[in-house]
């Protein structure tokens, strides 16, 4: 975004904050249904000092980040190699296409109860759910990335004398990297979205647990603070991944 | 003279999806050619005459249907840096610098850095890219990308260099620069070159022999010996013999009325 347009973005953000402050602080909107920014700041300070439901705030944040990262990382570790192989071998593609085709359109949240039935209410079902939802994206995007590699680039690799293994690691993998990075970005946002959903069931800690539990006791300021923390972490994570992507893939699209 | 490439009775057929089963299109038939060491051979012909099909077989990208195709007495059955290809499109690895593009081949074959390093520096200097070794392909002009491809091929010390309309996408001025570069590279390394083009002047300027191909069937219509001394300069394009040869080849390339559709 150019500098001139950045002012519009800052202005719209400031306007939203101002509107919220005016509505809540003037009493136009009841504090009990929409807490003011001041209340949220106090609640945040309170959560920092005394924690929530017997655990410090950072441990709720830490637990959620751990679950999201665990599911996400597993999906990358298994999904990228699997996707690359599927993209390169027609037989594997034929084997996996119906399986992926069936499972992918099912919203992952539909599996929550099954996962609890099979894996209990520990970390297993939460990480498993995130893993499964990310996996399809990673596999499909990686496979697509390999299929879209121009034939000529492969020929150039064969022509300079690369063996099949070298061709895979030195040509196919880097050529598919932009698609893999796209998959990683999508998976990271999916994992963060799903961590909240997964913590709605049988969790005793985590940001998802915090917002659900506080809302049940009509403690809306805590719910709002939880939602804002989730949003900010998601934003930072997204920016970090884009920065890595720009650095690693400086050659992309040029 | 050493025979670098021998093609005898070479034939390539493709099965075509649109036609009745069993019916096959003959892309190249009865292709007989011997290329000797240090020769520059240019193949000209209308598009679809099978000249690229021939080059793909020599490169080892596709297999002949029948006939003999040998490089230095060995049957060609797979791609190899022995027969380095300069592609028409600027096919470099975009994630590697110019230098890394050039050395990827030797490095992967287990050549020691002490051996490929100086060789890479030498070929980059020969093609005028020594100052651009750390640039990435996206930072290069079209002409520079083709120079990088030539360097990538030269570094392997190929038996035969295959050039598939390498300057076809460049503008006229750049094409002239590249012709002069190729001539100077030839003076330095004396490689054997098989060059495909549809530009008759380009072929006459570069080649020791110009092979004119005909279409339907794709085979050699005629071979012209080009008598100009090396090193050549653009002055030869003003030579009456140049104009004469060009007129003759252009006439030969023009489709016969009964073949026009």
UniProtKB/TrEMBL annotation, chain A:
It comes from Marinovum algicola. Its main location: membrane. The keyword Transmembrane applies. PROSITE patterns: ABC_TM1 (PS50928). InterPro entries: MetI-like, MetI-like_sf. Probably part of an ABC transporter complex. Probably responsible for the translocation of the substrate across the membrane. Belongs to the binding-protein-dependent transport system permease family. The chain crosses the membrane at residues 65-87, 99-121, 127-146, 190-212, 224-244. It comes from the Bacteria. GO terms for cellular component: plasma membrane. One of its GO terms (biological process) is alkanesulfonate transmembrane transport. It is found in: Cell membrane. The keyword Transmembrane applies. It is a multi-pass membrane protein. This is NitT/TauT family transport system permease protein. Keywords: Cell membrane, Membrane, Transmembrane, Transmembrane helix, Transport. Residues 61-245 form the ABC transmembrane type-1 domain.
TrEMBL record, chain B:
Residues 5-240 form the ABC transporter domain. It holds the Pfam family ABC_tran. One of its GO terms (molecular function) is ATP hydrolysis activity. It comes from the Bacteria. The keyword NAD does not apply. Keywords: ATP-binding, Nucleotide-binding, Transport. InterPro entries: AAA+_ATPase, ABC_transporter-like_ATP-bd, ABC_transporter-like_CS, ABC_transporter_ATP-bind, P-loop_NTPase. Belongs to the ABC transporter superfamily. This is NitT/TauT family transport system ATP-binding protein. It comes from Marinovum algicola. The lineage of its organism: Bacteria, Pseudomonadati, Pseudomonadota, Alphaproteobacteria, Rhodobacterales.
